[in-house]
Amino acid sequence: MTATPAWPPHSAPRLHVETALGEGVAVAVDGNPAHYLISVMRIKPDDIVLLFDGRSGEWAARARDIRKRDLVLQCVARTRPLEATPDFWLCCAPIRKGRIDLIAEKACELGVARLQPVLTRRAVVDKLNLDRLHAHLVEAAEQCGRTALPDLSPMVKLDALLRDWPDDRWLFFADESGGAPLAETLPGHPGPAGMLIGPEGGFDPDERAAIRAHPRAVALSLGPRILRAETAALAATAAWMTINGDWS
After folding, report:
1. CB 93 within 8 A of CB 117
2. 211 shares a domain with 96
3. Closest to 114 (Cα-Cα) out of 142, 146, 84, 90
4. DSSP label at 186?
5. Count of domains for the chain
6. Which H or E run includes 63?
7. Is residue 78 helix, strand or coil?
8. Which residues pair with 157 in a beta bridge?
9. How far apart are the first and last CA of the chain?
10. If we measure between CA atoms, which residue out of 223, 159, 171 comes closest to residue 195?
11. pTM value surpassing 0.85
12. Per residue of the chain (248 residues), what is the pLDDT tens digit?
């Protein structure tokens, strides 16, 4: 007896689109995504491509009107609803290009809801290419199967972050000068949260004092070793997901 083919095909490529998706919606694709589908994946008419828009879940779409540099994908069925994203923000100081790109990519894979760059006094980088970071988030979401794209917020100064921090959200921060053990602290602070990670040189004393004075701030220790900024960001995110997020 012939086995029924998987639907949608497990090998179908995934693509993030800005168009609001729904049954019968046709999405015109050009530029780099079209090149990837046509020249790399060798998409043929009626082949399935999985689409997600970050708002309505994931949709199976059939390829049609394929030309050299563009094609049309028409939604035929929703394959997955929009995921329930843990209410977790990763707030990190900007670091060198390759390392901040890594943070964006892995933070998306780990399930963060928002990536918030925060400018601190010892940061060696004071500007970010948000378009490039957004592209890394999109690529990671396409690869890891996310249906909700993390929000990418414009960079803010630390004092503005503290001033505007929501009253109902914990602000955990990795304090290299000492804090409570992470494994003991996170279980006692459930609910919406953010994790604040400093730059390569750490927070300066005045910044650390300002953070500690915030009523929602909780200082954490990430262990006995000095971690690079990107390692601290991803380790702390994974720990929160294990204890209070969708890994628990």
Report:
1. yes
2. yes
3. 90
4. G
5. 2
6. strand 58-64
7. strand
8. 119
9. 41
10. 171
11. yes
12. 444 446 566 679 999 999 999 999 999 999 999 999 999 999 999 999 999 999 999 999 999 999 999 999 999 999 999 999 999 999 999 998 889 999 999 999 999 999 999 999 999 888 999 999 999 999 999 999 999 999 999 999 999 999 999 999 999 998 888 888 998 999 999 999 999 999 988 899 999 999 999 999 999 999 888 899 999 999 999 999 999 999 98
Domain assignment of residue 114, yes or no: yes
Q: Are residues 131 and 237 in the same domain?
A: yes
Q: Outline where the chain has alpha helix (H).
A: 31-35, 97-110, 130-144, 158-164, 182-185, 205-213, 229-243
Characterise 144 by phi-psi region: left (phi > 0), alpha (psi -120 to 50), beta (else): alpha
The residue segments making up the domain with residue 211 are 88-243
Q: Which amino acid is at 49?
A: V
**Structural domain includes residue 66:** yes
Tell whether 214 is covered by a domain: yes
Q: 242 is written with which tokens? A: 């294990």
Question: Is residue 125 situated within a structural domain?
Answer: yes
Residue 115 sits at φ, ψ, to 5 deg, of -110, 120
